[in-house]
Design a protein that fits this description.
about 170 residues; alpha+beta; OB fold (Dihydrolipoamide Acetyltransferase, E2P); 2 domains; 5-stranded mixed barrel; two-stranded antiparallel sheet; about 35% helix; elongated
Length: about 170
Amino acid sequence: MRIFIPPIKSFIFILLILGVTTTANAEVISSTELIENARKYDKKTIEYQGEVVGDVMARGDFAWVNLHDGKKAIGAYGRRSPIYNLVRYKGGYNYKGDILQVKGVFHRACRQHGGDLDIHVVNFIKVREGFRVLHPIKQEEVVGAMGLFIVAAGFAILCAIRAKRK
């Protein structure tokens, strides 16, 4: 017995197996594009993506999060619960922050927030989980620090001896 699968069903089946989606994603706009062409995007729905940097700042049922796309950071303002549920790592010296993609209304001078440039987010998606950044101690730095300690200790001893003689 032979099973016949029409060509279109085969194509869809192969796409599903490979995990390829056929939905079109809107183009993610860079911070540079948003800032340089703020009038063009003002009060328009846009998509933006960046690393969570700094703290998540709660404001009642809402929260602020700063997203840095590698060039500049833009403030994203939205419902508190999705932000707190998604964000695990915030970028800083010891951590690479989560990467979030947001969809929302861009404001070049938001009246609600004192004229700040921001995005009022309607949808948050975590694109990539952040991680801890390890800062290995270099052997030459340890040797240099020990050398400086020995020199400082030597000067302290010399000063103590000179003070005792006087």
